[in-house]
Amino acid sequence: MPAHLQPKLVNTDHQTLPLESLCRQLQTELGTNARGRLAPTPSGFLHLGNVRNFVLNWLLIRALGGQVGLRIDDMDPQRSQAHYVEAIFQTLDWFGFDWDFGPQSVAEQAEFSFQKQTDVLYPIAQRLHTQGLAYACDCSRKTLQDSPTYPGLCASAQKTWQAGENALRFAAHRFGYPDDLVIWRRDGLPSYQLASVYRDQQDQINLLLRGADLLASSQFQQHLAQALGGYLANTQIWHHALLTDSHGHKLSKSTGAQPQGLANSGQSPALLFPAIAVWLDLPAPDSIRKLSELYQAFGERYFCP
Ligand SMILES: [Zn+2]
Questions:
Q1: Given pLDDT bands bounded at 50, 70 and 90, which one contains residue 255?
Q2: CA distances to 131, 213, 267 from 170, in Å
Q3: For 24-64, what is each residue's pLDDT tens digit?
Q4: Which of 234, 286, 298, 300 places its Cα 20 to 30 Å from the Cα of 191?
Q5: Which is nearest to 197 in space by CA: 171, 162, 229?
Q6: Residue 252: pLDDT band by 50, 70, 90 thresholds?
């Protein structure tokens, strides 16, 4: 039997903690006040990497006695599709997840859609612009194609912002963050970053577990949250290593997803739990066949020292 290691998590200050220590810290600092969310994107079928992230968020919040929400990230109307929204509910149900806030069904999702939030977010973007914390940018994709981060070309140009004509960037460099990401897209829609931070503030999210590829995004979001004034600036955001394929590549919607969605793949979720149990360093992983069994083993391993 190979020796396994418990996952290590890293926060936006690059502090690293083994899961066991993080559990203890969260118990002291958040306890039953913990609020987190599962946030699938309906632009493709979920893959195992997504599910593993949901499992960790769900287990941790449930073990703390906090509240877990569902938030479907349909910010991008071009990429979001109704049949993927349906597949999200099927997959979550297939795994046995439950949640306390957010949509409980496809029908309810219409109420929670990010596409209804443009009017709410516009004055917020405007305020950041007026305060000088955001600036208009006309740079074309071509101008920026060789820069990994925005080179600040429009940062002090004081261009007029016209929603639908040019983009609006948050002046994150002022807070020591190297990339002034877009908060209002050139096509007239709020960006993922702005929509996500605002919703997390509304939902009073104080615990997020994300993939390691999102660490820089989390740092940006914390600066943006601070500028918006409020929640998320103090949110605990921890990052875990990503699930990779046999070549060590990160799973993506195109490489890792079942073409018909996990819930319709014909396999039983029972077959997936042992691998997740191994990742979480739980004893007797092969005996774990259900989310409830995983939850029990997780609680005994990390919450009953
Ligand atoms: Zn520009």
A1: low
A2: 11, 21, 45
A3: 999 999 999 999 999 999 999 988 889 999 999 999 999 99
A4: 234
A5: 229
A6: low
Q: Give the Cα separation of 236 and 122 in Å (integer).
A: 27
CA of 137 from ligand 1 middle (Å) equals 4
Give distance in angstroms: CA of 138 to centre of ligand 1: 5
CATH, domain range 8-115+204-302: 3.40.50.620
How sure is the predictor about 257, in pLDDT bands with cuts at 50, 70 and 90? Answer: low
Phi and psi, residue 228, nearest 5° = -75, -20
The hierarchical CATH code for the domain 118-189 is 3.40.50.620
- The encoded tokens of residue 241 equal 């290593």
Q: How far apart are CA 298 and CA 293, in angstroms?
A: 8
124 CA to centre of ligand 1 in angstroms: 20
* Rounded distance from Cα 159 to ligand 1 centre (Å): 9
pLDDT tens sequence across 210-251: 999 999 999 999 999 999 987 676 799 999 998 877 677 776
* Residue 152 Cα to ligand 1 middle (Å): 7
Confidence at residue 4, expressed as pLDDT on a 0 to 100 scale: 60
Distance 201 CA to ligand 1 centre (A): 28
Q: Give 154 Cα–ligand 1 centroid separation in angstroms.
A: 4
Domain residue spans of the chain: 8-115+204-302, 118-189
